Amino acid sequence: MERRNVGILGATGMVGQRFIQLLENHPWFNITWLAASDRSAGKTYADACKWKLDTPLPAHIAQMVLQPNLPELATGELPRIIFAALDADIARELEPKFAEAGCAVISNSSAFRMTADAGYVIGPPGLGLLADATSSTVAIISASVVLVSLGAIFAFTSPEKRSVLQP
After folding, report:
1. Half-sphere exposure of 163 (CA within 13 A, CB side)
2. Average pLDDT for residues 112-128, to the nearest whole number?
3. Is this model's pTM higher than 0.90 or not?
4. Gap between the Cα atoms of 122 and 129, Å rounded
5. Is 55 helix (H, G, I), strand (E, B) or coil?
6. What is the side-by-side strand order in the sheet with 4-9?
7. Cα 91-94-100 angle, rounded to 5 deg
8. pLDDT number for residue 135
9. What is the largest CA-CA distance in the chain?
């Protein structure tokens, strides 16, 4: 199976570092794009980030140049899938911009958890489990079992756009 190119928004923070750690050797995803605040954009990841995890910073990630945290300022092609590691206030501002630019945004923030058309990822990234935000816990668990058996990952980009990504 071909790995899908993904980006990490808020890559230099602790959650962004954890996304890198979890996705680095993931069989479905290839990290090709990293973004951070204006303070860090334009620097290499190694220069902008103090790596705090117990695993080594991957060499190719260390050499990546951080992109601005706005889709219209990014150089090159945006990945179709963005893992967002932002504080809720910043997420409310930035995540919709990436969704409007056509990216499926998978967020760690609480900013849109109660939005009717948002989805929830159950478990760590890579399990591929997601259910509607309006579902009860039992329904989410039931749906998760079905999704795992089908091997589907659901990614919601905006109320108008929904996409199903097959592993």
Report:
1. 14
2. 55
3. no
4. 5
5. coil
6. 29-35, 4-9, 81-84, 104-107
7. 125
8. 38
9. 45
Q: What angle do CA 31, 143, 154 make, to 5 degrees?
A: 30
The CA distance from 166 to 145, in Å, is 16
Q: Which of 120, 125, 100 is nearest to 110 (CA)?
A: 120
Q: Tokens 């899938």 — which residue? A: 81
N residues, the chain: 167
Could you give the CA distance from residue 74 to residue 90 in angstroms, rounded to a whole number? 17
pLDDT for position 120: 54
Its sign, for the CA torsion 68, 116, 167, 15, is positive
Ordered by where they begin, the domains of the chain are 4-165 (3.40.50.720)
- Kindly tell me if the per-residue pLDDT of 75 is higher than 70: yes
Q: How far apart are CA 61 and CA 68, in angstroms?
A: 16
Closest CA to 80 of 122, 118, 28: 28
What DSSP assignment string belongs to 115-141? -TT-EEE-SSTTS--EEETTS-HHHHH
